[in-house]
Write the structure tokens for this entry.
Amino acid sequence: MRSVSFVLVVVAAIWISNYSSGLIHVCSSAESSAPKPAPWPHQFHSLLFVNYSGSLSLIDLWYDWTNGRNFNIIQNQLGKLLYDLEWNNGTSFFYTLDDNKECRSAQLDVGILRPNWLDGATYLGQRSFDGFLCNVWQKVDFIWYYEDVVTKRPVHWVFYTGRSIHVMTFEVGAALEDAKWQAPVYCFENKKPNEHPASEKSIVDIGFLEYISNGILREVI
């Protein structure tokens, strides 16, 4: 009887060991098979609808990683047309092209977002949003990012402050002509750019320089 009991104990131990190994393998497989967000194309053009606690705006976005630059043309509801020009060396110009010739500049420690800026984001599952079935990720505690399951195009992202971005168009490979990337001459008239170190206190919303503009693509990660 003791021999039989010993054999049963050994068999049970082997079964439990194999079962546990199987669970670990399944869990590891599930983690490794979680969808990854598609890297952004090196050049694209997008129209964005922005809602921030009822304050509405449209952003005409030109992302150009190839040439190290990013351009937000911002129309606030019933407001002036604003231009937010950002370079990968940390230089930014925020200006108007009306008769007032307003311009502010800043020098930051960070460039524009990398195409793979979502690497390391935590996958949260799928959710229907704006009529699309989306995979959803969270990047640290700053941003929640929604990507169309079928096309892999961005559909929506929302920042921890509640600023909500809806992607209306997404043209891969579209590029703005070089002449449009030149800040006006009055941006360079005896003005020293403000310097802003990259920190969570000075830069919010992964690129929203709230004290400078409503732009969206400054790198802080």
Remarks:
- Helices lie at 2-32.
